[in-house]
Design brief:
The chain is an alpha/beta fold and 432 residues long. It has 19 helices and 10 strands. The strands form 2 sheets. An 8-stranded parallel β-barrel has the order 3-4-5-6-7-8-9-10, surrounded by 7 helices. A two-stranded antiparallel ribbon has the order 1-2.
């Protein structure tokens, strides 16, 4: 039985209780929203050792970290290190986007080692295998694609990104309007190439009920992919993107009717003045389904700093209602991320998510900042380190810039505003 079917039957599962405790919510709050589909709990029945998290309405904004091999770099040990780095930095989920090496072995090792939800994009493996088997990715059969999807579900993957919303009609809309960057989603490009080569409808759309059967068996959450997400600001919020979103809204309804959990993926590269409208549109068309966004990146001209452009967009998106942020690392658009890139990307997205949680009134968010403010006023450096979103980096700066560990920081020294005013107010630091 899926989490949604249990919730619809009025049953509060162990996962729901666990999430309620972590989020400062009542178990019934979680159950009721899982039943409606506005909260999802990606928790495959075969993922042992998972500490489940909820994504959606009224919960803390979650962060995903993408890891995985490429055809040029495919050492499983590296990806397990990235997994540990991501979880250590506070990621709530990871996605294995591997395209090089032994894909089954890499995925199974990641699922086995991960305490957070694991997602994949099955069409990546399906196309890699099709190229080996047939010499061309477009010669992949629908059965071969579904075989890979079921294998990922059987292996314990908690959520699957599937580009079900790209239909022949959506592609025609893209062709008529035109784009600067066309399609930048790898999965979206694969399925589009297959459809145009065979002049056939998207098998993920045509045989959507087959997907629902697999999801029901393993309680896999469908992450309905945005194959036509804009890859540059010039392509944002165009007809093709919105038409795909309309299709995804219909597919959310069909998933909920079967008791399958579903969330929706979104853009992409979006200028600041369009982000809120994008979120509101998705929430309306998809009946408040949890929204999972990449960034959004708010400018195209910052390679090397795209974790910052994504955090700016992510903060605005999450404050408008996005529930799940996919991190972007400094290496985005440039190359495969390193361990340090992974850590930087997770922290940047967590900052964005937390900034939004303060606005959304998520339990504990504003209180966290208040505790930090009190620790700063009291010049309680140890408490500040404990409260920091990245204690490791905060401590490095403190120790390097103030090796003598003076009470004030080296920015103000003897002219510390906190200390001067406290003296005249007649209070000692511990009184704050």
């Amino acid at each position: 039985m899926t989490q949604m079917l249990a919730a619809k039957a009025g049953r509060i599962t162990m996962q729901m209780k666990h999430i309620a405790e972590r989020e400062g919510r009542k178990p019934e709050f979680i159950r009721e929203r899982v039943a409606r589909g506005t909260i999802v709990i990606p928790a495959n029945i075969n993922h042992k050792g998972l500490e489940p998290a909820g994504f959606g309405e009224g919960l803390r904004t979650k962060v995903n970290a993408n890891i995985g091999t490429s055809t040029g770099i495919h050492d499983p040990a590296n990806e397990l290190e990235k997994l540990r780095a991501a979880v250590s930095a506070g990621a709530d989920a990871v996605m294995d986007l591997s395209t090089g090496g032994d894909l089954d072995d890499i995925r199974r090792k990641i699922v086995s080692a991960s305490t957070v939800a694991v997602g994949t994009v099955p069409i990546y493996q399906a196309t890699v295998e099709a190229k080996k088997r047939h010499g061309n990715i477009v010669d992949m059969t629908a059965d071969e694609l579904f075989s890979v999807i079921e294998k990922h579900a059987r292996d314990g993957v908690d959520f699957l990104t599937l580009h079900c919303g790209i239909t022949m009609g959506v592609i025609e809309s893209l062709r008529k309007q035109g784009r600067v960057a066309d399609i930048v989603s790898r999965g979206g490009s694969f399925i589009t190439a297959w459809m145009l080569h065979h002049d056939r409808e998207n098998p993920l759309y045509e045989y959507y009920d087959r997907l629902l059967d697999i999801a029901l068996e393993y309680d896999v959450t469908l992450s309905l992919g945005d194959g036509l997400r804009p890859g540059c600001l010039a392509d944002a919020t165009d007809r093709a993107q919105v038409q795909e979103l309309l299709v995804l809204g219909e597919l959310v309804d069909r998933a909920r009717a079967r008791g399958v959990q579903a969330m929706v993926e979104g853009p992409g590269h979006v200028p600041l003045d369009q982000i809120t409208a994008n979120i509101k549109l998705q929430k309306s068309l998809c009946r408040e389904a949890p929204f999972y966004v990449l960034g959004p990146l708010v400018t195209d001209v910052a390679p090397g700093y795209d974790h910052i452009t994504a955090a700016i967009g992510g903060a605005l998106a999450a404050s408008a209602g996005a529930d799940f942020l996919c991190y972007v690392t400094p290496a985005e658009h440039l190359g495969l991320p390193t361990l340090e890139d992974v850590r930087e990307g997770v922290i940047a997205s967590r900052i964005a998510g937390h900034a939004a949680d303060i606005v959304k009134g998520v339990p504990g968010a504003r209180e966290w900042d208040l505790e930090m403010a009190r620790a700063r006023k009291a010049l309680n450096w140890e408490r500040q380190m404990e409260l920091a979103i990245d204690p490791l980096k905060a401590r490095i700066y403190r120790d390097r810039r103030n090796p003598e560990q003076t009470e004030a920081c080296t920015m103000c020294g003897d002219f510390c505003a906190m200390k001067i005013v406290s003296n005249y107010f007649g209070k000692k630091p511990e009184q704050y």
